[in-house]
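Entry type: protein chain
Record version: 2
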Amino acid sequence: MKYRLKVEVSLKPSHSDPEGETAARLLRELGYKVEGVNVSKAYNILIEASSREEAFAKAEEMCRRLLANPTKDNYTIVVEEEK
């Protein structure tokens, strides 16, 4: 069965986000009342797995091995059955 993994990787609150800080500053300069901006990466992955649980486990493994740095990143995973 095919599953679509939606993985979002973002910096932990204790790490600086220069790209987000720059975007926030520029948005303020454009007149928007922005309190802050956080930048994250989104991965949309189509994968073959025997169950939703297996697909989620594979997504977690991908995050640990490549997509996220556990020292500085948090990640969220959403698994959807591909139709």
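Comment: The CA atoms of residues 14 and 72 lie 8 Å apart.
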